[in-house]
Write a structure and sequence with these properties.
Number of helices: 2
Helix content: 40-55%
Number of domains: 1
Structural class: alpha+beta
Shape: rod-shaped
Strand content: 15-25%
Length: 95
């Protein structure tokens, strides 16, 4: 991947990796509480998503995870597509 040289590497890395920060997965889940599932809206034994704090039941957890993965991937792609425009704008304003 060719990133514009005008943006420091650490900023580019933060922009690209921030939405999918793996540290969020290390946050312990609240398991075994009875709440309403945010996906199917049925009351069941749920666990709390470490990323978005929504409660999901066991049967909806995988689909919620896949949806979050898709949304984060889309956001990362939007950031990647926007970096050249941002770089051009910055270089024009610096001149």
């Amino acid at each position: 991947m060719n990133l514009p040289s005008k943006i420091p590497n650490h900023v580019t890395f933060i922009l690209i990796s921030a939405p999918a920060a793996p540290a969020a997965a290390a946050v312990p889940e609240v398991v075994g509480s009875t709440n309403q599932c945010a996906v199917c809206e049925k009351e069941a034994e749920t666990s709390k998503c470490a990323h978005c704090d929504k409660f999901t039941c066991t049967s909806c957890k995988k689909s919620h995870f896949n949806q979050m993965k898709f949304d984060i991937g889309r956001t990362v792609n939007q950031v990647r597509k926007g970096i050249p425009k941002l770089s051009n704008s910055i270089s024009r304003s610096v001149k």
